[in-house]
Amino acid sequence: MPEKSLKKGFTTGAAAAAATKAALHFLLSGEKKSKVKIRFLNGETTLIAILSITKISKNAAKAIIIKDAGDDPDITHKAQIGVCVSISKNSSNGLEIIGGKGVGIVTKPGLELNVGEYAINPGPKKMIKESVNDVFSELGITVPKDLTVEVFVPKGEELAKKTLNSRLGIKGGISILGTTGIVTPMSHAAYIATIKAGAKIAAAGGAKTLVFTTGRRSERFAMDLFYDFKEECFIQTGDFFKASINEAKNIDQIESLVFAVFFGKAVKMAMGFEHTHAAKSELTMQGLVEWSEKIYHDKTLTNNIQNSNTARHAFSYIYPEFPDLLSYVGNKIVENAGNFASGKLNIRSLIFDFDGNPVFDSHHLFVS
User: Fold this and answer.
1) Could you tell me which of 66, 67, 53, 65 has the C-alpha nearest to residue 24?
2) Same domain membership, residue 142 and residue 221
3) Mean pLDDT value across the chain
4) Beta pairing, strands 52-57 & 95-99
C-alpha cells in the first residue's frame, strides 16, 4: 500500500502576504474577502483563508490569517499572523514593510538582514510587494500612494522562546520566513539553514571555533565545559553530521570544530554516516561489535555489546574498563569529520557519558 503523501503548508511570509492582500483590498474596495489567491515565489498559487478583517480607521485596516504548516511539525503551525495596512495620501515614500508586536528585531550581524531591521526576510517582503501590486492591478488603481504594511504576530514573543531566535540575535518575537512561501513537510532544508545562519553569526562575532552538539542536553554540558566561549559558538546540528561541516567549511573565518556528543551519536559519526538518524542503530551495534573484536579480542565484551539493545546500553560495558574502544570511536569521528571538511578545518571530538562527564577528548584523554 503506497504511503500517504504529506500535506504541504505555507510559511509565515506567505501568511503575511495573504493578510496584506485581504486588508488592502478591503481598505480600497470595502469588500471583505473570505479567501485570497497568493502566488508563491516558485510560480505556484494557492487560496488562503482569512480569519478576520477589521477597519481601524478611514485609512487603515488589518487582517489576520491562521498559519497552516501542513503536516510539518512547525512551531508557528496554527499561529495567528496579522498585517495592518495604512495609506497616507500626503506622502510619496512608497511601500514600507515593518514589524509590529511579536515580530523580532535583528541584533547581531551575520543574517540576511542588517542589525536593527525587523526580522522579515527578503522572500516574504517580495511576496508582500507582489500582493500589493496585485490589489492595485485588480482594482485598476494606478495613483501612487504611500503604504505601510505592519506585520504582527499576537503570540510571537511566546513562540520565539521555542525557537533559536535568541541565539541568532533576534529579539522580541519570531522571524517572518520563507524562501518560496511553501512549507514542505519534514524538510531538512530549514534545519540546515539554521545551522548555516548560526555559524555565520558566530563568525561575524569573531569566533574561529564552533562547538557542534546534537541537541539541548549535550549543548548544556558543552557550555559548562567551554564556559569561556560566547553562546553563539554553540550550534545544535541534530543528525546533520556532514551537512553541518559543509556549512562551516564554507566560512573563511572558521578554523576549528568541536563535536561534543553522547556515545550513541558518537558511534554513528565514527562509522562515517553523513546523517546520524536512529534508523541506523542496527548498523551502529554491528560496527561496535567488529571494533571490540579488533581491539580487545575479549569474548565477554563482544557478547555484551552484541546483546545490548542500544549504544547507551553497550556503553555501560565499555566504560571505564575498555578506554581503547572509546578512543577508537572518538578518533574515527575526527578522521571522518576531517574527510568531510576536505582538510579545511581542525577537528576535535569529545564524548560525554550520560551524566555529562567527558570520558574522551581527542585533545586530552580524560581518566575517571
Assistant:
1) 53
2) no
3) 88
4) unpaired
299 found inside a domain? yes
Bigger pLDDT: 179 or 237? 237
Do 266 and 141 sit in the same domain of this protein?
A: no
* Residue 201 shares a structural domain with residue 178: no
Q: Which of 153, 183, 213 is the last residue of a domain?
A: 183
For residue 151, the number of C-alpha atoms closer than 13 Å in the C-beta half-sphere is: 34
Q: What is the pLDDT of residues 336-352, one digit of tens each?
A: 999 999 999 999 999 99
The conformation of residue 280, written as its DSSP 8-state character, comes to: G
Closest CA to 202 of 111, 338, 103: 111
What does the alpha-carbon distance between residue 105 and residue 169 come to, in Å, rounded to a whole number?
A: 8
| Residue 351 domain boundaries | 189-361
Q: Quickly state the pLDDT bin for 72 (edges 50, 70, 90).
A: low
Q: Is residue 367 part of a domain?
A: no
Question: What pLDDT sits at residue 295?
Answer: 94
pLDDT in tens, 264-313: 999 999 999 998 875 556 678 889 999 999 999 899 999 999 888 778 88
Rounded distance, CA 11 to CA 29, Å? 27
d(CA 179, CA 188): 14
The residue out of 145, 160, 183 marking a domain boundary is: 183
Residue type, position 78, single letter: K
Smallest Cα–Cα separation from 322: which of 308, 338, 302?
302
Residues 66 and 90 placed together within one structural domain of the fold: yes
Please state the domain count of the chain.
2
Pairing of strands 146-152, 95-99: parallel
- Residue holding cell 557478547? 303
